[in-house]
């Protein structure tokens, strides 16, 4: 095993899932650490310095949310949550609790690998707080420092709220940002339930960027949960 290979910590009580992920991750060149309980996972997270954590919500000793909260007290390692629970409330709780992404069981190994690559790229850039302040894919160019947005080289006039929402998503590329997080950061802590404000702004943003909501290129919706801006 390559000593420089990314270290993935899998915390899941299902032996089949651990075996499935162990085989799949090793085939992709990752170094894999396995834990079947929350306490075991916390111990490995503290002593083995993983580059990314795959964390199941339903563990026998601790809730995955509790494990996440414990990890976040001393580490900003990327965490991808796994769960059979497909409710919007569970996804929002995980994301608001500090998870970087959320995948529902059953899942495809290729989708999981793609999500992991995004998280590792974010970490390599220094984490969300240090994410690139520029984005340019040849059509859409965003310079957050200059507060400048260009579409096909033409300036796009955005309101303060529109730019704030776009900026928040761009600073978390590839990551689902929950509706509550956007509302809290852009409108303030007393507006976390005012999702109609956000829908109006997202509609205006899509209109100005020519981003078809049925096949979005930039402003991708996670229904009932939040929004995701593409990574790289």
Give the number of helices.
Answer: 8
What does the overall shape look like? globular
Largest sheet: 5 strands, parallel
Q: What's the CATH architecture of the largest domain?
A: 3-Layer(aba) Sandwich
Identify low-pLDDT runs. Answer: none
Q: In the residues, how many domains can be counted?
A: 2
Oligomeric grouping of the chains: single chain
For the record, what is the CATH homologous superfamily label of the largest domain?
Answer: Response regulator
User: Structural class of the secondary elements?
Assistant: alpha/beta
CATH class descriptor of the largest domain: Alpha Beta
**Distance between the amino and carboxyl termini:** 28 Å
> Averaged pLDDT, please?
87
What is the fold-level CATH name, i.e. the topology of the largest domain? Rossmann fold
Read across the widest sheet, the strand sequence of neighbours is 2-1-3-4-5
Helix content: 25-40%
Task: Explain what this protein looks like in three dimensions.
With 232 residues, the protein is α/β, with parallel strands linked by helices. The protein is built from eight helices and twelve strands. The protein has helices at 15-27, 38-48, 64-72, 88-96, 109-124, 160-170, 179-186, 195-209, and strands at residues 7-11, 31-35, 52-56, 79-83, 101-104, 134-136, 140-143, 148-151, 154-155, 176-178, 220-222, 226-228. The strands form three sheets. Strands 2-1-3-4-5 form a five-stranded parallel β-sheet, with helices on both faces. The longest helix is centred in the middle third of the chain and has 16 residues, at 109-124. The model has no long low-confidence stretch (mean pLDDT 87).
